[in-house]
Amino acid sequence: MTERLNFANAIRARVDARPGYDPRTLGIGQVHIGLGAFHRAHQALYAELALAARPGPWGIAAVSMRSAAARDQLAPQDGLYALAERSGAGETLRLIGCIRRCLVGGEAAIAAIADPAIRIVTLTVTEKGYCHDPASGRLNPSHSALSQGDAASLPGVLTAGLAARRQAGLGPVTVLCCDNLPHNGRVARQVTLDYAARRDDGLAAWIEREIAFPSTMVDRIVPATTDADRARVAARLGFEDRGAVV
């Protein structure tokens, strides 16, 4: 049986690049909601490159809102995984170490956002995760998730996490949407304000005044990792990596 990738054996992994810092000492400054292959191959890669250039407290606490699959892949590997980048010139294999916590569920996301060390909340939950009316960009009040409590929806999670920060007197955060929908920052902001106004007009006014929701444009495709991909990565890496992405 092939040994599973982790901190103890990572030094022996056969890769083209590995973390230029010690992930075990990395403080957490970002929350990511939507721990899928896209985040691991895109946002986490850029965080990795930035940390290699200038280490700092910018590790990621990544949350899957519903499925525990990503946590179960990464947690036994101490959050480490290999990113395989393929092109006509061949393939490079890089170890990524910046995802320091793997969480599951809306309650975990709320608690993570409320952490005083957090400065950025990034989002990749697909368009349907915003519980919005595409025609108006506003919160869809009849969306089924909205009747199930704050932890059941992205707008609820953002609002509850930001409310906890406000109550504790913490500083603001940037909410950075990287989902493929027009004016994505504007949509994320509006559904959060609409949800917040349902519970507290003062909270909605605070979010409108203090929280940044920049819009982004992302053009990158990350296919689902197949068993053949994992076998190929393992053969080259020298260890089993259930969290590998391509």
Q: Would you spell out the secondary-structure blueprint of this structure?
A:
Elements: E1 28-33, H1 37-41, H2 43-53, E2 59-64, H3 69-74, E3 81-87, E4 90-96, E5 99-104, H4 106-113, E6 120-123, E7 132-133, E8 138-139, H5 154-167, E9 174-177, H6 184-199, H7 201-210, H8 227-237
Helix pairs in contact: 4-5, 5-6, 6-7
3D structure, described in words:
This protein is an alpha/beta fold. It contains eight helices and nine strands. The protein has helices at 37-41, 43-53, 69-74, 106-113, 154-167, 184-199, 201-210, 227-237; strands at residues 28-33, 59-64, 81-87, 90-96, 99-104, 120-123, 132-133, 138-139, 174-177. The strands form three sheets. The chain has a five-stranded parallel sheet with strand order 5-2-1-6-9. The radius of gyration is 19 Å and the shape is elongated.
What are the main properties of this structure?
246 residues; alpha/beta; 33% helix; 18% strand
Please give a quick description of this structure.
This protein has helices at 37-41, 43-53, 69-74, 106-113, 154-167, 184-199, 201-210, 227-237; strands spanning 28-33, 59-64, 81-87, 90-96, 99-104, 120-123, 132-133, 138-139, 174-177. With 246 residues, it is of the alpha/beta class.
Low-confidence stretches: none
How much strand?
Answer: 15-25%
Pattern of helices and strands: EHHEHEEEHEEEHEHHH
What count of helical segments does DSSP give?
Answer: 8
Main pleated sheet: 5 strands, parallel
Distance between the termini: 23 Å
Radius of gyration: 19 Å
What structural class results from the helix and strand content?
Answer: alpha/beta
State the total count of DSSP E strands. 9
